[in-house]
Amino acid sequence: MHRPSLTGQLGRRLLQLGFPVDRVPGHLREVAEHYDDLKQAALEEGLSEEQAEARATELLGKPEVLAEQFVLALRRSSWWGRHRFLGFCLLPPIALTVAFIAAAAIVFPLASWCVAHHWLTPDGGRPGFVPLAAGAVTAHVFILALGTLLFCRLAQRAAAGRGWSLVVCAVCALQGGAFYFQVEPHMFSLGYSWPLNYLRALIPLVVGAGIVFRQKRMLKMLAPASGGVPAIE
Question: Fewest 10 Å CB contacts: which of 35, 43, 63, 126?
Fold first, then answer.
């Protein structure tokens, strides 16, 4: 097997298994350099070019096996990779809830301060609360999107696989859709409600779609082009 074919197959398999995208080029470069060393050693023994390539390929191992070894090693070295259910099913809703409560702890004193200073009418004047309520909703959406991105990033860094990133998106979608954050004159509330707010639930799903799109784009970059695979120099 030629080096370009080897690195191309290895790169595609790494991405399919959920290996961090930014680490793939470095691993391909290391494997390519090791392949060159093995081939050069075989040539120095007097083997032909074709025999040297066959020797290097045999000693290096199949790309699929190498990819699985890289992924397994990364998962074992990471807390998130070893505790995927806890890290990507249970922790995201807890973290988002804590973040929402922290945001509420900021919004509620701000609302009280505004009323105390007569910026807003305390006798039910809703128009004065519109900017504050809009800010609360914006903070909610921002925390939901940022939290989803963060946990998806952790899943990617731990080589947990695309499936776990999508699980994070689904869990965050349920959390975001069921959670409400409301600011009204003389009333401030947060909690869970049903039915879901489908607009907010859509935000983590958009994040998941972006992750899938990015992975497909990277796979396309490593896909055979005109009968060949780009080499890693």
Answer: 126
